[in-house]
Amino acid sequence: MTETAAAAAAGPGRDRQGTVYRDGALGRRPAVPTAFGDLERAAQRASSTRAWAYVAGGAGEGRTMVNNRRAFDRWAIVPRMAHGVTERDLSTTVVNTSLSSPLLLAPVGAGALIAPDSDLAIARAAAATGVPYIFSNQGCNPMEDCAAAMGSASRWFQLYWSSDEELVDSLLHRAEASGAEAVVVTLDTTMLGWRPQDLNLGSLPFARGEGIAQYTSDPCFRDIVRQRIVAARDMVTERPDVTLGAIRTLISMTRNYPGKFLDNLRSPVPRAAAETFLDIYSNPGLSWEHLATLRDRTRLPIVLKGILHPDDARRAVDLGVDAVVVSNHGGRQIDGSIASLDALLEIRAAIGREPTLLLDSGIRTGADVFVALALGADAVLLGRPYMYGLAIAGQRGVEEVIRNVVAEFDLTMALTGARSIADLDERFVRPNPSF
Length: 435
Known about the structure:
This protein is an alpha/beta fold. The protein has two domains: about 5-200 and about 285-430, Aldolase class I (TIM Barrel); about 215-280, no CATH class. It contains 18 helices and twelve strands. The protein has helices spanning about 5-25, 35-45, 50-55, 65-75, 120-130, 145-150, 165-175, 195-200, 215, 220-230, 245-255, 260-265, 270-280, 290, 310-320, 340-350, 365-375, 385-415, and strands spanning about 75, 90-95, 95-100, 105, 135, 155-160, 185, 300-305, 325, 355-360, 380, 430. β9, α16 and β10 form a beta-alpha-beta unit. α2 (about 35-45) packs antiparallel against α18. The chain is globular. The protein starts with a helix and ends with a strand.
């Protein structure tokens, strides 16, 4: 192999291996485990009970989470030998956003349960690794702060469609001003699913003022809160029970609201903000008629997240959206739902090859990314794994998880003979006969 060919053959996979092994020779191990099972166990040890319940938990008995993983197990990769391929191109473009690899960071709400200033750490890690970050509408840091932390790096914005239409417009305008390259409308959480891990703890972070920074930093939302406070002054309300839990919740609301702690402690605003959020954050009546108004309300490309049925995908395509994210919300909304990967196969068959499809839910490794793209995804969203990295080692942990996933994906391409993202198709996979 020539020197040029050897350099080309390296790529992010061998580069990452080289870094880890060189550090190992000096007695240094990776900040986060490289195998997902070890990563998950280490993250659980590093997390509080409340944090782990929220981030790692699923709906009901967790059957959708199991379905997501079994769907990947049903496929086997079929590598080709003596292919002579030494150069690989991991880059692609989705929704006019250039990607160095077919990976984006999924939006995850209430990340400060895992680590302080979670969204800022994730934003910096995404920028450092060249992976776009989808800002969570239920984040713990305002989108403007996250955008500043990323510099010129690519970012999208997730929108939960509020029952207050003026707030929807305000969030969209702020996303544009923050340099978002697309808006991702989450469709599957018009109300929270049944989540026993959180319910058993009586733990809803938003009720404690956690994960509502996009709202408390929004001028429209703050005006709604002020109006509610004024309207409530003449109403007789029941005095809440004074318990240790109530005091802790009040302190959490106070600490998470912008401004000085003592000023907030004397003010009704932090509590009113949490209550207002719970009332209006999402619209249970969200319909295709609502979605049809988006083109007149934002100049951003439109991505719909949470679609699992081919008919819904066809309707999205007919509506002219720029992409669809096939997702079951990581198994957090409905127990026993179809796996996202299984839905991807049906949807791609129904709408053809042209529309842009992204896959979310169940992605754990670089090999998973490979299978998803071979079966029709244009790119994937990574969620829980990077949050586990955050729990273990903050920003560095997020970066290492991203680099590990990209490295394994690159090595899988190299070892199967795939030259580029466009090269990946059903030739590289087969139904797993041992499943």
